[in-house]
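= Paired protein data =
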Amino acid sequence: MKRIFLALAVLFSIQIADAQVKSPAEAKKAVEAAEAATQNPKKAVKPATWMKLANAYVAAYDAPVGNVWIGAGKQELMFMMGGEKPVSVEQVTLSGQPFSKEVYAGRNLYFDAEGKLQIVEVTEPVYPDALDRAYGAYQEAYKVDVKQSKLKDIVAGIKNLSSKYLTEGMNAYMFGDLKKASEMFAEAAAVSAAVPVNEVDTIALYNAGFTASMSKDYARAKGFFEACIEAGYMEDGEVFAKLAECDMNLADTTAAKAVLEKGFEAYPQNQSILIGLINYYLESGDEPDRLFSLLDKAKANEPNNASLYYVEGNIYKELGRIDEAVASYRKSNEIDPNYAYGLIGIGVMYYDQALDLQSKAQNEFDDAKYTALVEQFETALKNAIEPFEKAFEISQDENIKVSIAEYLKNIFYRFRDQGQEYADGYKKYDAIVAAGRAK
C-alpha cells in the first residue's frame, strides 16, 4: 500500500494554478468569444482559432482556483490573495492525513500540518467539463493544422491537460471518491495515448487500475493492469499481484495462478506475489510443489542470490514448516554474511510464535496447560534473541537496527529478573531505541 500511495503522491507536485489567472466572469466571456469565432467558416479552418478556444477553456478551468499554487505557505498566499479571508476554517482528515480546510467563495484550500497548500477543491467551476471541452478544441486544432505549424503547441497543451486530469484524480482519491479518481486517471492516460501526443502514461494507467480495484470494479481495473504490463510497467512486480487479485475477485483462479507464476518468475522477491501464490495453494488445496519449482529455477540462475533463500524461508513460514523456514533463512546468511533479512525472518517468526502462545495461555484455565504454554512462550522468545542480535550486528541500516532493537528490548524486558545478562540487555536496547526515536 505504501508503494502505491507513493506513486499517487507524486501527483502532489503538480501545480494547478497559472501565474496569470482571469476572474471566472472574464474567463467565461473569453470562452464565449472564442466559441463564436469557431462558428465563422473562414476562421474555423485555422488552427489558431481552435487553439484560442482550447486555451480559453483551460483558463476557465483555472479561474476559480485564483492566484494560488500547490506547496505555497499561508503567508505567501495572503499577499497573492489580496488579504481575502476564509469564510470558515476546520480541521479535517483525508486519507488518514490531517489538513486545515479553509473555505472561500468558489473554492476550498487544504493545508497540511506544515501550513503548505496541498489541495485546491473548486466548488463553483465555470464549466464542469472544461478539461473535456479543451481537449476537444485541441483535437480540432490538430485536424485543421494540415501543415502541422501548431503541432508543438497542441502537444504541449494536451500534456498540460493530462497533468490537470492527474490532479483531479489525486484530489478525488484524497476525498475518498475512488470511482471519480479512476475516471480522471484514465482520462489522463487516454489523452496522452491518443494522437498527436502518442505517449503511454504508465503511472496514470496504474493509478486508474489501482483506484478501480479499490472501488471493487475489478473488471475495469484488470484492463488497466494488463495495459501496464503490455507497456512494460511492472512496479517491481506489484502490477502482477494486482492483476491476479482482480482475476481472483472475478472468480478466474486459472488466470490468477498464471499471472502470479509469471510475476514470480520475473520478481521472486515481491512479497505481494509470493503471498498471492501461497494463498492460492492453501485455498485450492493444490500441492505447492510448483511454487518451489519456480523458486528452484530462480536459484539455479542466481545461486549466490541470498534473497531467494529468504523468499524460500517466507514460503515455508507461511506453510507452517518452521524448521525448514529456519534452514532457508540461515542459508541466506551463509551465502551472504552481510545479508540480515534471513536472520530477521527467524527472529520475527519466533517472536510471532511467542505472541501466539501468550494469547493461548491467557485463554487457558487449566493450570497445567497454562504452565506448559508459558514455558513454550518463553522458549520461543529466547529462540529469537540469537538471530535478532546477529542481525543487529551485521545490519548497516540504522532504521532496521532500531527496529531490531525494539524487538530485543521487549524480549529482554520479559526476562530482566532472571539474570543480569537480561537486565543489561534490556538497558542496552532500550537506550538504542530511545536514541533512534530522538533522531
Q: What stands out?
A: The two ends are 25 Å apart (CA to CA). The longest helix spans residues 367-394.
